[in-house]
Amino acid sequence: MKEVIPRVADEANADPRRVAIGGISMGGFGAFDIALHHPSRFCAVGGHSPALWNTGGETAPGAFDDAEDFERIDVIEAARTDPGPYLGEPVWLDSGSSDPFIPGIDAMEAALRSAGADLTVRHSAGGHETAYWDRHWDEYFSFYAKALSRCPRK
Length: 154
What we know:
Elements (H helix, E strand, L loop, with lengths): L3 H9 L7 E5 L1 H12 L6 E5 L18 H6 L2 H7 L9 E6 L5 H14 L3 E6 L5 H5 L2 H14 L4
Parallel strand pairs: 1-2, 2-3, 3-4
Helix pairs in contact: 4-5
């Protein structure tokens, strides 16, 4: 927030107030977590096969420090109980049909839909792998470009 956005904006001669955030796998989780902690900061947030778990017991070893760490940054629960940070911008969720994170992605989708988020969801053939993401770059860039073109100067 304090280093990357200003540096990229400077190097790309871009407006640092008009930023979208997204990521693949754990980066998708990270995008939702950062957006949660910086409400109204981003023009869009996207999770591409985001690593989302319904409980701390489901997580991969090392993904979180411990159960308390998981609970502190449980983005699905946050979307259920206080979805405000996700309501001010377009949100993207996608996964392949054999992605192991589908239960968490479905839970995030349900929470965001229930809250009335501006949500785009895509499920298509594939797994949690580079070949899946490579087939969807055009969709991802189109989503972010559209969101940024409509984003007011914050």
